[in-house]
Amino acid sequence: MNARDDSPVAPLASRDGEPTFAEPWQAEVLALAFALVRENIFTAAEWSDTLGAALRQAANDGKPDDQTTYYMATLTALERLLATDGRVTTESLSERVEQWRRAYLNTPHGNPVELSAGAEPRRTR
Hints:
mainly alpha
């Protein structure tokens, strides 16, 4: 994500030349948060507070200060804000996670995973 340095949700500066995230797809969570702030779904202050709380919780839980922990905290913060807002329910989130899991399992190795591959099998009578 190429956010301006003065952006309220600009990515953290890399440490020792290491990128903030281990994989490009992990950065999409931060890009999504940035887009949702720009669309006024939640404020930059709400994002900052929620991400900070998730990072503090990870530290309190003894998680290492690394890219995976940062990604998981970012994802947790985004999920919390969307659940609080009511746009995404815990149930719908769980259903979507399961759909992606089925899609992954139904996709041959080396092919891109498409959500449609995780659709519920049609039941016959």
